[in-house]
Amino acid sequence: MKVIPITSAPVEAESLYAAHKKIYPRTVHGVFARWRWLFVVLTQLVFYGLPWLQWGQRQAVLFDLAARRFYLFGLVLYPQDFVYLTGLLVISALSLFLFTAVAGRLWCGFACPQTVYTEIFLWIERKVEGDRGARLRLDGQPMSLEKLVKKWFKHLLWISLAMWTGFSFVGYFTPIRELGLEFLQTRMGSWEVFWVFFYGAATYGNAGFLREQVCKYMCPYARFQSAMFDRDTLIVSYDADRGEPRGARSRKADPAALGLGACTDCSLCVQVCPTGIDIRDGLQYECIGCAGCVDVCDTVMDKMGYPRGLIRFTTQNAMAGGWTPRQMWQRVLRPRVLVYAAVLVALCAGLAWSLVERQPLKVDVVRDRAGLTRMVAGGRFENVYRLQVMNATEQTQRYRIGVSGLNTLAIVSGTEVEVGPAQSRWVPVRLQLEHDAATPGSHPIEFSVRDASGMAAVTEKSAFLVPRQ
């Protein structure tokens, strides 16, 4: 029997994942680029500026977790006001549903913190290293003194901005002026140091390095946005009927004579895309709706002397049916959108009304567990309670305590209490009842607490216990 030797050829390992390619977005100018920078400026003015605003003798916006008080300009909120946070979250969710149903990922493209800080970091990168072509050349060069200086200077600016962002974030929870003084005196608390560095590192990493990867792989919104889209949602779309077949040509050439569409195949729409997609391939989940491709394509159309709108915000139905803008907008304002808008307006109005009518006084009643009921001099029954009186105003207030529910029931301890601004105080209250005024058992009573002016009044229910003989 003849033995045939077996030879093994070298096996090449094949990766299951494509290597990540760095994206170098090109600078773009136009209507949507100006809108995007407007939102960058507005959001950062609010974020960086609010902690420094003063309201009277305190910070205007402060979430004081240690004292369990949240200050929002003239409002002082307690943990018992958690319902307002719930309402705010519901309103935010409905707003997202509404904006997505109308025009897709507007939040992602214009106001999302990831988009905003990526735009700022890219602006710094362009100022230090140059536009897209210059950055490509710089990264392709071997290390040199010029490259080292530019890279280190860019990262120094990035880190400075990121740390200032972390400092501003912590300034919402610790008075920022005190925080700044503690920083200068190197007396910052361990948790404050941790959160400044944590938030700063997150900003530096997400906006400086991860960028589009956060939008494509980490953000869940990219995955479930299609559930909120329909064929009447405004999305960034490429008009293939008008643009194809694409091809290069001179400005003076007649595209019809060459058998070409309006697309010059310049690929600028790809170069300006912050997530690196080609919008000409159709709607993709990576598209964040920033409309950079719309701006750059309109610029090319202007140079070629073609009508604008080869890439534009439109709906799938409008694109397929060749609708006019009026027809398109009539379908955009469809019942689904109107219902979202009506519910959102109703919730906002309800939350605003609740805040306006909110009592600047809160009361909690706790029975004294040391003893349920005791007999005192004169044959009276006595119950002891503890009332937590919370003053939600910015001035010292005097409150009068009353009780009702049983005949001859009276308060034998003090009936007036003074509470400082935005403070709470526990008040012991002793109630006494005549021996034969009620049958044995539990009887409902009601405490009332009101301020001296009578503008704020709160009632709380409790029970008075009469023992069996």
Automatic annotation (TrEMBL):
Residue stretches spanning the membrane: 35-53, 84-108, 156-173, 193-210, 337-356
The keyword Iron is assigned to this record: yes
Transmembrane among keywords: yes
Domain 4Fe-4S ferredoxin-type: from-to ranges: 254-282
Domain of life: Bacteria
SUPFAM superfamilies: 4Fe-4S ferredoxins (SSF54862)
A Pfam family assignment: Fer4_5
Keywords from the named record: 4Fe-4S, Electron transport, Iron, Iron-sulfur, Membrane, Metal-binding, Transmembrane, Transmembrane helix, Transport
Database matches in PANTHER family: FERREDOXIN-TYPE PROTEIN NAPH
Name assigned to this protein: Cytochrome c oxidase accessory protein CcoG
Organism annotation: Caenimonas terrae
